[in-house]
Amino acid sequence: MKRHLAEETVIFVSILKWIIFAAFIGAIVGLSTTGFLKALSWGTEFSKSYSNFFFKNNYSYFFFLPLALFISTVLTKYLAPDAEGHGTDKIIEAIHKRSGKIRALVVPVKLVATIITLVTGGSAGKEGPCAQIGAGLASVFADLIRVDDCDRKKIVICGISAGFASVFGTPIAGAIFGLEVLCVGEILYDVLLPSFVAGITGFRVTSILGEKYFHRQLNFIPVFSDSLFLKVLLAGVFFGMCSFLLIESLKNCEKFSKKLKIWKPFKGIIGGAVLVGLALLFSTKYLGLGLDSIKASLRGQNVEWYAFILKIVFTSITLSFGGSGGIITPIFFIGTTSGAFFGNIIGGDIATFSAIGLVSLLSGAANTPIAASIMSIELFGPKIAPYAVISCIISFLMTGHRSVYPSQMIDFTKSSSLYLEGERTIEGVKAYFKPRGASLLEIFLKMKRKLSNKKNNQNSKSI
Question: Are 418 and 431 in contact (CB under 8 A)?
């Protein structure tokens, strides 16, 4: 009896402890997210006013990109290297290798470098900084209360979840994302409660402070049919291929940048100059967050068929040549515009497939099918959920053992016909074909021998 009572008491105290810790982390991250978003909004208006002063045009702000990427690179190189790029991968690495220990200096450097990148037109997102700032603040809090490594990891994961939930207005998906993104094929159930509490608290604080979110209930009445089901299956395959294209583009662009043996800040000038040239050649709509194109696709409006390809190029250059920012908002852009393209090709509803594309790209590129499926409900309503879930799972499988987060751990193989070799991380593993039973070649040769023997027997009988 005493043992049973002791167990209940310990669990109750543990629940109470993590509710308090997670609520505090969620509130702090909600405050910091609101501050970051307001600073980003102010910075955008400031850059446009200076653009008008220098160029007599509010839309010429992107001419400052070479200088902006130069400054961003200097900040991250000399003050906080973990703040470069989209940042979330560095948090994952810190959790797996350093029990969530993150330098406090990462927080202000990431905030400043991201604002500089985005307000001048760098193609990046706003969620990475919020997640990294949240994780950094959570790590500082863990230092103050002197917890062990196990509790530190849980607290930092709460910071990630609160960051994603508060920046996108999706508390449940944000909480699950913080758990699912760490390891492919495993969710940390011991952090489930604090992650949800932190995500919901962060979302509520940000909402109370006046942040507005884009939630669009789709006018979608699902009438199941064989043709619609087939289109959704094909959509999952297509979005998986788009995820593959994004991941490989980011990886190869980063490799190319590393091959340039010059002072790193000079690479920012080169990357910024290339982005200016591409914007002049194509359009400025592929710069910055690209929210107008995302909203247009979700309203069912036509966009250029190649929009998702150009966004991949702009984003890869920005993040590989000194820019700082997130990767999820570009994923949303690529997902919605590729969905609009796919909807046009198959004669489907553009808004519906844009919405499915948004969450399917997230599922495939980040290996987070559960969070992406829940996000489809939080953003677009429950009617689209059955179709979005199917597409998310197929996209997740189609991407293979790749991710925009190379530090993700791998806990399972996506096909029983593959075996993994090397370290159990995305960047350290290689997948190889593993025949199960008779291979297709062996089956073909066996059938060929049977046909040949049958033909010989017939010839013998005829003789």
Answer: yes
